[in-house]
Amino acid sequence: MTLRSDVAELLAGAGILDVDVDDAVADEHVRSSAYQRVVSVTASSPRRDRDRDRAIVTMILRDPIEIVSKSAVVALVDGIAMQVTGPAEFQQWSAELLPEIGRLKAEGNREFIRRRVHDWLFYLSIEDGHVPTPVELATVTDWMQRLLAEESASPAVLAVLAESGNRKKTRNVAKNRAGSRRLSAGP
């Protein structure tokens, strides 16, 4: 397997015909953009083919520039998380992916992806009706807490965030959104 054959296969598999493979091989910025397009097509595909997803991740992780491959895998995790029907489906999908991240040399990059998967499992469980405890909330990143504060429609979740969010900004966003939800709900 060569970088050129991996890039060519990824582009062809995603139906992306307007990227010059040689340009992508020569320039990590072009390649990174191509990977982002590949994972976008993959994530938005209506049918989850875990074997194909794992093969895509394997090819991307062979890229010689680790930050390029890590960014693409994170984008795929984010995209899949937004498409699944719930935490069980995402748990099953991510269980197939996580062994592949061992290909990353830097432990920090591997840990970042593991944490992102954990964050999305947490998010999906909340979307499924779970109200986290402050202890559970402390297990997710500041990024996920902020996302929940900005997007959650649950007054109970917003209350936990307003009280126990890691950052003052997150607590304030949750408090303000919880207050405005009460006002819009009426007496």
What is the compact description of this entry?
By secondary structure, the protein is mostly helical.
Any key phrases for this structure?
mainly alpha, single chain, 11 helices, 0% strand, elongated, 187 residues
Secondary-structure-derived class: mainly alpha
Counted by DSSP, the helix tally is 11
* Rg of Cα set: 19 Å
**What portion of residues belong to β-strands?**
under 5%
Percent in helix: over 70%
| Average pLDDT | 93
Number of strands: 0
Head-to-tail CA distance between termini: 65 Å
Coarse shape: elongated
> Which stretches of 5+ consecutive residues score pLDDT under 50?
none
Largest sheet geometry: none
- Helix-strand string: HHHHHHHHHHH
Give an overview of the whole structure.
This protein is mainly α and 187 residues long. It has eleven helices and no strands. Helix 5 runs parallel beside helix 7. It is elongated, with a radius of gyration of 19 Å.
